[in-house]
C-alpha cells in the first residue's frame, strides 16, 4: 500500500497507537477550565528548581516518567525519543531528558513542536524503525518571557492580541503491534495519518500577535490535509489548532472561508481551551509548546479513549522567530503540523 498521498501527507497502513500520555502544568493552568484533567499541577512554578529553565526541564522529566509508567514500560523499551522546546539549543529537553539515555532527535518547530514530534514518532513506528517511540515537549511562561520578550520584573503592559505562554510539559508513548502480531492493551487512540506543514510568511512583524502570524500556516495545512485525504471539515469531529487564541482563530476561519471551507462548526483551539482569558487575564489565550501538548493529553485523548470523539485533526501551530531575527527587523514566519488521531 502506498502510504504517500496528496502533496504532503501520509496515510498509515498500520496505524501507530498512542499507548499513554501525561501532562504536567503550572499553577495558572491548574486554575483554568481544564484544571481537573491534568496529571500533575505544580504548587510552585519553579518546581523546586533554582532557575526557570531548570523548572522547564523538570516538566519534561516528570511528564515522560509518568507516561512511561502509564504505558508499563521502561526507558530501555523506547527506541527513539523526539523532543523539543522553545529555548535556545533545546536546553529544556537536553537537560530534562538526558538521564533517560534514550536515543534522541532534538526538534524545533516553535509552538508546533508537539505536532512535529508526534508526526516523526508515528512515521518511525509505522515504518518499523521502532516498536516504541516517545514524543515530549514543554514550555514555561517565565523562561519564554525571559528569552523572547522582557524580564518579568519589567512588568510591561501586554496588548490584547498577546497570548500567554503555557507552563506545561506533555509526553506521549507510541507503539506498533506487539511482536506476536496482537494489539496493545487499552491504547488511548491511534494516529492514522499526518500532514507536514510548510513555512508560510504573510509578513507579520508584531511579536505580540502570534495568532495573526500563525493563522496562515494553519490555513494552508488544513486545506492541504482536506485535499490530500479527500475530506470535508465535517469529516472530523474536531479540527483542533494549538496556539492561535481568539485573534488567530478569527483569522483562520475567515481565510479558510475564502478558500471554500467552513470550519467554524468544528474548530477548537487549545490556547482558548486552557484558560479562562477574561478571569485569568491571559489576553487572547494560551501558546507555547506545552499548550497543545498538555491539552491533547489531558482533554482530547480522553474524549477519544471514551469514544466521545471518533476522529480529530490536531494542528499545533508555531511562530518561527528568534530574538536575533526579530531585532534585525525580519517578519515572523509560521508553520503548522497536522496529525490525524482516531479512536481505537
Secondary structure: elements and pairs:
Elements: E1 4-5, E2 9-11, E3 17-25, H1 27-30, E4 40-41, H2 52-71, E5 80-84, H3 91-97, E6 104-107, H4 113-126, E7 132-139, H5 141-148, E8 164-165, E9 168-175, E10 189-195, H6 210-229, E11 238-241, H7 245-258, E12 267-269, H8 270-273, H9 277-280, E13 286-287, H10 289-305, E14 311-315, E15 317-319, H11 323-327, E16 334-336, E17 338-342
Helix pairs in contact: 2-3, 6-7
Task: Give a verbal description of the structure.
The protein has 344 residues and is α/β, with parallel strands linked by helices. The protein has two domains: 17-175, 3-Layer(aba) Sandwich (Peroxisomal Thiolase, Chain A, domain 1), CATH 3.40.47.40; 189-342, Peroxisomal Thiolase, Chain A, domain 1 (3-Layer(aba) Sandwich). It is built from eleven helices and 17 strands. Strands 1, 2, 3, 4, 5, 6, 7, 9, 10, 11, 12, 14 and 17 form a 13-stranded mixed beta sheet that branches. It has a two-stranded parallel sheet with strand order 8-13. Strands 15-16 form a two-stranded antiparallel ribbon. A hairpin with a 3-residue loop joins strand 1 and strand 2. The relative contact order is 0.19. The model has no long low-confidence stretch (mean pLDDT 93).
Q: Look at the structure and name the CATH superfamily of the largest domain.
A: Stage V sporulation protein AD
Instruction: Give the second-level CATH assignment, the architecture of the largest domain.
Output: 3-Layer(aba) Sandwich
Return residue spans where pLDDT drops below 50 for at least 5 consecutive residues: none
**Beta-strand percentage range:** 15-25%
Number of domains: 2
* Structural classification: alpha/beta
Largest sheet: 13 strands, mixed
Radius of gyration: 18 Å
The global form is globular
Relative helix content: 25-40%
Supply the number of helical segments: 11
Q: What's the total count of β strands?
A: 17
Give the integer mean of the pLDDT values: 93
Amino acid at each position: 500500500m502506498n502510504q504517500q498521498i496528496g502533496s504532503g501527507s501520509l496515510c498509515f497502513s498500520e496505524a501507530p497507537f498512542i499507548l499513554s500520555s501525561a501532562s504536567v502544568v503550572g499553577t495558572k493552568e491548574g486554575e483554568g477550565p481544564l484544571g481537573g484533567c491534568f496529571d500533575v499541577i505544580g504548587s510552585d512554578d519553579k518546581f523546586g528548581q533554582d532557575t526557570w529553565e531548570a523548572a522547564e526541564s523538570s516538566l519534561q522529566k516528570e511528564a515522560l516518567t509518568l507516561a512511561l509508567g502509564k504505558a508499563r514500560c521502561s526507558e530501555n523499551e523506547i527506541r527513539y525519543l523526539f523532543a523539543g522546546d522553545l529555548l535556545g539549543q533545546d536546553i529544556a529537553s537536553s537537560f530534562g531528558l538526558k538521564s533517560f539515555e534514550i536515543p534522541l532527535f532534538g526538534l524545533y518547530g516553535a509552538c508546533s513542536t508537539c505536532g512535529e514530534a508526534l508526526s516523526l514518532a508515528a512515521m518511525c513506528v509505522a515504518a518499523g524503525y521502532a516498536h516504541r517511540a516517545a514524543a515530549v515537549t514543554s514550555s514555561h511562561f517565565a523562561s519564554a518571557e525571559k528569552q523572547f520578550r522582557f524580564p518579568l520584573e519589567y512588568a510591561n503592559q501586554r496588548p490584547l492580541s498577546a497570548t500567554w505562554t503555557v507552563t506545561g510539559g506533555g509526553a506521549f508513548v507510541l507503539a506498533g503491534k506487539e511482536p506476536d502480531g496482537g494489539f496493545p492493551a487499552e491504547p488511548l487512540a491511534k494516529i492514522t495519518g499526518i500532514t507536514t506543514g510548510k513555512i508560510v510568511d504573510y509578513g507579520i512583524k508584531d511579536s505580540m500577535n502570534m495568532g495573526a502570524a500563525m493563522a496562515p500556516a494553519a490555513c494552508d495545512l488544513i486545506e492541504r490535509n482536506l485535499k490530500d485525504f479527500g475530506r470535508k471539515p465535517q469529516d472530523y469531529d474536531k479540527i483542533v489548532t494549538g496556539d492561535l487564541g481568539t485573534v488567530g482563530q478569527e483569522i483562520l476561519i475567515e481565510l479558510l472561508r475564502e478558500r471554500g471551507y467552513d470550519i467554524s462548526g468544528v474548530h477548537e483551539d487549545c490556547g482558548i481551551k486552557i484558560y479562562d482569558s477574561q478571569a485569568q487575564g491571559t489576553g487572547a489565550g494560551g501558546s507555547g509548546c506545552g499548550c497543545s501538548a498538555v491539552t491533547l493529553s489531558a482533554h482530547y485523548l480522553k474524549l477519544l479513549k471514551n469514544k466521545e470523539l471518533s476522529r480529530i485533526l490536531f494542528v499545533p501551530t508555531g511562530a518561527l522567530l528568534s530574538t536575533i531575527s526579530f531585532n534585525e527587523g525580519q517578519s515572523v514566519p509560521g508553520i503548522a503540523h497536522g496529525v490525524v488521531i482516531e479512536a481505537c
